[in-house]
Hints:
Number of strands: 21
Largest sheet: 8 strands, mixed
CATH class of the largest domain: Alpha Beta
Shape: elongated
CATH architecture of the largest domain: Alpha-Beta Barrel
Bound molecules: pyridoxal-5'-phosphate
Radius of gyration: 24 Å
Strand content: 25-35%
Distance between the termini: 18 Å
Number of domains: 2
CATH superfamily of the largest domain: Alanine racemase
Number of helices: 11
Amino acid sequence: MYNYLKRAWAEIDLNDLEKNLNELLRVCGTSQPVAVVKANAYGHDDRSIAPFLERKGISFFAVSNIKEAITLRECGVKGEILILGYTPPDEAEELAKYDIIQAAVSLDHALRLDDEAKKAGVRVKLHMAVDTGMGRIGESGEKAVEALVKVSSLENIILDGAFTHFAVADTLSEDEINYTSAQRESFFKVISSFESKGKTLRHKHCLNSAGGIFHYDSRSTLVRNGIVLYGLKPDISLELPFRLHPVMSLKAVVSLVKEVPAGTYVSYGRTYRSEGTRKIATIPIGYADGYPRSLSGKGEVLIRGKRAPITGRICMDQLMCDVTDIEGVCVEDTATLIGTDGNETITADDIAVLSGTIGYEIVCGISKRVPRVIIENGETVSVREYY
Ligand SMILES: *Cc1c(COP(=O)(O)O)cnc(C)c1O
């Protein structure tokens, strides 16, 4: 490890990413896999993840906005790129220039993109969103069919596809399975109704990670794989049919170890008071790095292969933990906040449960103050420092 990284850093293991990818490819059937790399590849560094996946055969990527899409083009990604979220219509020229497919969130959005594309003298590729029960973007039912018909005749739009998004693909109770089936059927009803008018769509897609694994349907030409690529569960209570390999580890060094007498308060608010003589270690990582403050007094850190409970409140840039029962802890030891040390592992999903959220929010929330160390075959291949 380079010396300048010796505060806090995240390790991104590309071999683990590849293992998850291979498992997903097995469940993708005949559909084309899309790698969802929005939000800096769920915090894993999109500029490292996307080119790697492209080398491994992925030729379709999804992001959430135009800045992310252009970032991929600028780091050499040649494959197709779909923006799943909103892009202001006045970016039509940029969309065409970088050959990016845009999701139309409504008929109005598509019409305004067509207008702007006309002004710029370009044609923009669209996938129309269809709302089948997520209540987020797109029109539903007959209105969705009408929107597709309308958009298919716009001169400056290339209608390349349509898609919907499942609300409960990751929940396998009978009720939720029925809800997902109903979403899927109403989506394909919209599609057949549109296609019965002599129209065709290159892509129609409805599957996210959980959809591809638990509700696979070969009529979906694409599977939009996000969270499982990164080795996390769509929902913590799900049993996946294969083993996941978490791609991100979060680490920091020990900056100080000290013995404190009974009755010593540690950190803001005096929420922790030592019962007896304790050995406390300070770790220079905090909520400004994206380690949730809600883990105050609840979380654990791995040091020398053992669990050290967090004592008191997590600060912006530091936290303290109790290492009394761990032999020989010293300054510059590595503390693992997410990842494996010896026989102990803490996953982002574990942390999510403790802090009342989901693994997605934990990894996306690791801030840009934390350098990403990219690892392949056990070697550091690059280090991404955001500033
Ligand atoms: C984020 C997103 C995905 C990926 O979802 P995962 O649960 O991470 O697999 C797929 N489709 C859409 C529309 C999304 O916004």
